[in-house]
Amino acid sequence: MVWCSGWRLASAVSNCGGLGLIGAGSMHPEVFEEHLRKTSLATNKPFGVNIPLFYPEIERLIEILVREQVKIVFTSAGSPKKWTSLFHNHGIIVAHVVSSAAFAAKCEDAGVDAIVAEGFEAGGHNGREETTTLTLIPRVKRETSLPLMAAGGIATGRAMLATMILGADGVQIGSRFAISQESSAHENFKNYVINSKEGDTLLSLKELTPVRLLRNKFFEAVRQAESDKATKEELEALLGKGRAKKGMFEGDLDEGELEIGQVASLIDKVLPVSDIMKKLISEYEAALDELQNTKLYQFKTE
């Protein structure tokens, strides 16, 4: 949710009964501090922060969130072992995002409080294993006894219910809220997503940090480089700096990196968070009611 989830989106989700998360991976420390304080003013409900562990200024971000008494942290893109004890010493609950059952087990050993299992359908924090959410959730459920949240490919209430039937205790939703009125993303990016079709996103940059991208000029350059067996250094040079900001925050649909989940083709309108939350819950309840009223027939052969 880099460049999408600032204080407006995080506070709106929390005010509607969810747990809003500030996407700190695109924020310099002073900007991060500003968003924390604005979120605290905009909601009296719990909220959290997502921090990619490879972030170059992570020590400063952690110093700020401890000082501002943030109580919930979602870590991603790295091992949580180094920081979990520090968080716990300050009374902070830690959830970590994983893309494999093996890593989920390591996270439990590291002492995290909860797991987010994110399938191949997701936009960011993707796994090289390309395991789908449908397969990942029951696999992780076998490996860990921790509270489990499902992520990747979830944009409807029916998908929420499906993951819970598979063993999830809750869900983490990114792409649907990235294309909300409160999202910090540029309108060009939002409109590009709602006009996308099935198959318009593909997993890319597996040699660096796997992400799912919408097709555009930059995407085609990446695909060509990968086809030409470009080295890691050549891909890093192509990616350069600020590609995600250029695409999602500044709205450059040609040269920007346009990260979004596979559910992009299901999103057809930019809505306020309140409408999205109401629709998610009503769809979930309707699907649950249908399931509970479904009759299972046994056919006997003579």
What does it look like?
The protein has 13 helices and nine strands. The mean pLDDT is 92. The chain has helices spanning 7-15, 29-42, 58-67, 81-89, 101-110, 133-143, 157-165, 175-178, 187-194, 217-227, 232-239, 243-249, 273-292, and strands at residues 20-23, 47-52, 72-76, 93-98, 114-118, 148-151, 170-172, 201-204, 211-214. The protein has a seven-stranded parallel beta sheet. The protein folds into two domains: 7-185 and 271-292, TIM Barrel, CATH 3.20.20; 199-249, no CATH class. The relative contact order is 0.12. The protein is globular, with a radius of gyration of 19 Å. It is an alpha/beta fold and 302 residues long. Helix content is 43%, strand content 14%.
Structural class: alpha/beta
CATH class of the largest domain: Alpha Beta
Q: Rounded to an integer, what's the Rg over CA atoms?
A: 19 Å
The count of domains is 2
Shape, per Cα inertia axes? globular
Ranges where pLDDT stays below 50 over 5 or more residues in a row are: none
Helical amount: 40-55%
Sheet having the most strands: 7 strands, parallel
CATH topology of the largest domain: TIM Barrel
CATH architecture of the largest domain: Alpha-Beta Barrel
- Can you list the strand order of the major beta sheet? 1-2-3-4-5-6-7
* E-strand count: 9
What is the average of the pLDDT values? Answer: 92
CATH superfamily of the largest domain, by name, is Aldolase class I
- What distance separates the N and C termini? 57 Å
Figure out the total of helices.
Answer: 13
